[in-house]
## 1
Amino acid sequence: MNDPALIALEPSAGGTLTDRLFDALQRAIVEGEMPQGSKISEPELARRHGVSRGSLREAIARLEACKLVERKPNLGARVVELSAEQLIEIFQLREVLEGMAARLAAQAMTDAEIDALAALLEQHGQQIEQEQGQAYFQKQGDLDFHFRIVQGSKNRQLIGLLCEDLYHLLRMYRVQFGMRSKRCRQAFEEHQYLLSALRSRDPEMAELVMRQHVRSSLRNLEQALS
């Protein structure tokens, strides 16, 4: 694991210490400050940050629930590291589920929600220009284009799977392998095509564009891992 001192706790904003620990560790894992497969030392983290082992253990348990941390016999807690085969399987699942989410969103999103999505995409475009086309960082939750579309599907089962169960794990690979690469401009253009399909209320086209977009992301990831 990288130096635990790099994991900065945000000033309290009403959340509990466990919440702040969870947020800080999640951010460090997703952004690669805590490398995949690295050991999580509870005593070391507790000592570095002056927190109780109990609060830290609760935060790590929540990270396990998000599939960012796994425990192995005699090895303790480690940042998850997926094999290429496991990753391909998850992206295959993501293609189907996000394709369905886009199809439903084309029918279920309100005009106001689509306008808000367009405004978000405009912000993303400005950011890409500032990065000279070399990075496309999307913050999590409502600032994430994909998150917004899944929410727009209005399907609670899809939302549970893609915005909760698999979200942080997928985001980790998107951040570390997709958001700073030559694919940035292409990914942004694909988002624009998807927005157009949503505006046109074309479920078939929305699903097709999303599925192609996810397949392109997988190809980019496979190249990065090879």
## 2
Amino acid sequence: MRPSARPALAWIAAALTALASPAALAAAPRAGAPSPPAAHTDPLDSPRWEDMRKSFFADVAVVFDERVKVSGPAVAEDSLNVPVNVDASALPGVEELIVFADFNPIVKALRFEPGAAQPRLGFRIKLQQSSPVRAAARTADGVWHVGGAWITATGGGCTLPSVGSGSPEWQERLNEVNGKLWPRVDGGERLRMRIIHPMDTGLAAGIPAFHIEDIVIADAEGRTLSRIQPLEPVSENPSFTLDLRAAAPGARLHVAGRDNNGNRIDAWVTR
């Protein structure tokens, strides 16, 4: 063998020895083994997820979690009234829920403190275009758990004026509450209520933002049970469905709140 070939052979032998070491064998992927998921990989593959993460969860822990469910129509028939249900009841210790749509001009739609209610809520939103609609649930350990679903919409829901804004009737019935309580087979109660309000986003020409911003649900003794803070993307004359974990004392519940112009909500919902 020529002397010049010896260095090359020595280098090859050293490389083979290194590859055969236990550390290298442990690090090498096995044939057919799945690749590890990338950190913060969005299961809905939205190009705006990173913006959403920075806006809502920049300095806190956030994980995608299948236990947080968002359901709605695959294709929305009316972009002004898209029914959405969020359900994080499979998670223990949920203290707060927020709902947002990646591609809406006003992204955040609602904040919900379940309190004495299950961490699930039904309501309707406006969609400007097809978008992921997401719910994020904050548990007692401070971690946000995110779930969502794509909803296809024809668009324009956020930039159209409400029907109520063009009618004199809403001024007479503004913040009127219609609701009912029903017993549930699990021992709790279901509350369903509708509030008369135009819920204008401020994005339609010549119509300023005008929306409910706080709703507090209390029992007959004045104890707060749950809190809903809707924002502009919630649909006109918003309706909400929530489930109380147990029957509240007394024969009725108090619904109180205000809109962004200071108009008060003050009503009782009976069984």
